[in-house]
Write a structure and sequence with these properties.
It is a single chain. With 402 residues, this protein is of the alpha/beta class. The chain folds into two domains: 211 residues, Glycogen Phosphorylase B (Rossmann fold); 174 residues, Glycogen Phosphorylase B (Rossmann fold). It is built from 17 helices and 15 strands. The strands form three sheets. A seven-stranded parallel β-sheet has the order 3-2-1-6-7-8-9, sandwiched between helices. The protein has a six-stranded parallel β-sheet with strand order 12-11-10-13-14-15, sandwiched between helices. A two-stranded antiparallel ribbon has the order 4-5.
Length: 402
């Protein structure tokens, strides 16, 4: 079957959901196309982090290596990180004639438009949502939720369109008016065969950067912006750490910063009393070596999908204490700290590095991912839902315009 994914932002060198899911769906024997935005009008906080250079070449390389086709179309504009596609997308759908449309982020502009258009588009559809209340920062969110609950959510209730949740929260029920029992929970995950512990990486990394065997290495990888807690991280790393038996902590910071906020972050990291190894933004696949090389990882704010890769490599993690993260660390696989607290974050760093349970936490981290978040298994569940919707659609729908 031919699956078309419609997504606001896609970069072939990122580590987002589609970078994992679509190649696996090709391996399952499907044809897969991603329809996404041209990068020209996308937010600079996305394009500057991953890079716009040679994007056509990178798209072609992704297609060559995976078999997944990428179609970039113009957008009218971008509002709050959400694209409003040019109506050219309708003609593209006519031309490529997919078997099913997978619309990502049901509460985006395009998610809403395709929900309304489900009455006239003659194709089965599947939607997903990645949103959680913690990430909802728009000042108009209360107005939007009322609008969505009354003018969009009823369509899902009437048409029984499948919705996949990738986070285990009640956000969609509580704020968007879609009963949670009408959704399916399929978590994020990772390729456990690629992201796995590898002792030789640890040895080579320590030799390369002159790090002693008794020093503890903690990594941060991601944007150094306000949303990811770049300044909180830099402030927590400013003063010297000394562990039991006078051991020290070495920090590895992978990622870029920008603007006046980024300048503050860079200055603090540069003047830190700790040894900090600064490295630029990496390609998704290149990160495995660094995850294999360190002892633990830290997320000062929003926890990204790299959580799964890091844990799969056996890294205990330090996360802020919230609803999502408390569930993620329910297996003695890391340590929580109080949100926005430099003191609590510093305490958690020392606690993890000094812990007698470190080895168990490392084992647990890998075990949890392999047992519950192996994406090769999760991808089959996605495809199963898609196939079921196509079968249901073929039985019930015989008309409309596309």
């Amino acid at each position: 079957m031919h699956i078309v994914h419609i997504e606001d932002f896609f970069h072939p060198e990122a580590g987002y959901q589609l970078n994992l899911l679509t190649p696996l769906q090709i391996e399952q024997g499907n044809s897969v196309t991603i329809i996404t935005s041209e990068l020209l009008r996308m937010p600079k906080n996305l394009t500057s982090f991953f890079g716009e250079e040679q994007i056509n070449y990178k798209d072609k390389e992704f297609t060559k290596n995976t078999g997944v086709k990428i179609l970039r179309i113009p957008i009218y504009t971008n509002i709050s990180g959400r694209s409003i596609f040019n109506l050219k997308i309708i003609k593209i759908l006519y031309d490529i004639n997919p078997d099913v449309l997978f619309i990502h982020d049901l509460d985006s502009f395009n998610g809403i438009l395709f929900t309304w258009a489900s009455f006239i588009i003659n194709k089965p559809m599947v939607f997903d949502t990645h949103m959680v209340e913690l990430a909802s920062k728009n000042k108009f969110k209360k107005v939007f939720r009322v609008f969505y609950s009354y003018l969009v959510a009823p369509i899902f209730n009437i048409k029984k369109i499948p919705i996949i949740r990738v986070e285990d929260t009640d956000y969609i029920d509580k704020y968007l008016g879609i009963p949670i029992d009408q959704t399916i929970l399929l978590s994020f995950g990772t390729d456990c065969n690629y992201f796995k512990p590898y002792l030789n990486s640890k040895i080579l990394f320590r030799e390369r950067y002159s790090i002693n065997s008794d020093q503890f290495i903690i990594l941060y990888a991601g944007k150094l912006d306000i949303y990811k807690g770049g300044l909180l991280l830099a402030e927590a790393l400013n003063k010297k750490y000394t562990l039991n038996y006078k051991r020290e902590i070495v920090f590895v910071v992978i990622g870029s910063s920008s603007g006046s906020y980024g300048e503050k972050v860079d200055k603090l990291l540069l003047n830190s009393e700790n040894k900090i190894i600064r490295l630029p933004t990496m390609k998704y696949k290149d990160l495995a070596y660094y995850y294999q090389s360190v002892d633990a990882a830290i997320f000062p704010k929003q926890c990204s999908m790299s959580f799964y890769e890091m844990q799969s490599c056996g890294l205990p993690v330090i996360l802020e204490n919230n609803e999502i993260n408390s569930k993620r660390l329910a297996y003695d696989n890391g340590i929580l700290f109080e949100s926005d607290s430099i003191e609590s974050l510093r305490t958690a760093i020392v606690e993890l590095a000094n812990s007698n349970e470190y080895n168990n936490m490392s084992i647990n981290a890998r075990k949890v991912i392999v047992e519950h978040y192996d994406y090769s298994k999760i991808a089959y569940e996605f495809t199963k839902i898609i196939k079921n919707e196509i079968s249901k659609y073929n039985q019930l729908n015989k008309y409309t315009i596309i």
